[in-house]
Amino acid sequence: MKPAGSFFDGWTGAGNLLVSFSRETIIGFFLIGIVSSLVDIGLLIFLTGYCGIWYLYSAALSYCCGVLVSYILNKYFTFHDRKRNYFSQFTMFVVISFSCLLVNLCIIWLAVEIFSLNYIAAKIIATVCSFFWNYYGQSRITFRTGINQETNSRR
Predict the structure, then answer these.
(1) 8 vs 3, 4, 16, 19, 138, CA distance in Å?
(2) Rg of the chain over all Cα atoms, to the nearest angstrom
(3) 21 φ/ψ angles, rounded to the nearest 5 degrees
């Protein structure tokens, strides 16, 4: 038994964080992230390159479409969540995704305006940067009960 106030007390939270990144769900989340990112980046290229819409407006609109694809696929395939509380769950998904959108837009703007990168390269960098926050938020907040039900049913 370890004494109270020992060195290992601070590591409990870190251990819980690592457990939350379970291999099965993070791989599914990553693969679905690729699909939703392809939708997102494809629409960004179309809206900016072919329709002439300013890259930040295009990035916001294309991101929203990617979020919709991501929600539907993650709900059923990554987190195996069959509950029908769509409105409250989708609202939470959007709130977390909105925080990722803000990070995305800031990174894109900085990369394009300050570092003179192409908007597509900036979008790819922004997507990679926000992946882990998005996974953590969606798995621990939005689909938390879906994971718990899945884990409990396996025991």
Answers:
(1) 9, 9, 13, 17, 28
(2) 18
(3) -90, 60
Outline where the chain has alpha helix (H).
11-20, 23-45, 55-73, 86-109, 119-137, 144-154
Q: How far is CA 138 from CA 6, 121, 122, in A?
A: 32, 25, 24
| pLDDT tens sequence for the chain (155 residues) | 444 444 334 444 444 444 445 667 788 888 999 999 999 999 999 999 999 999 999 999 999 999 999 988 988 888 877 777 778 888 998 999 999 999 999 999 999 999 999 999 999 999 999 888 888 888 888 887 544 444 444 33
Q: Decide: helix, strand or coil at residue 96.
A: helix
**CA–CA gap between residue 121 and residue 111 (Å, rounded):** 8
Amino acid at 125: I
Question: Which amino acid, residue 92?
Answer: M
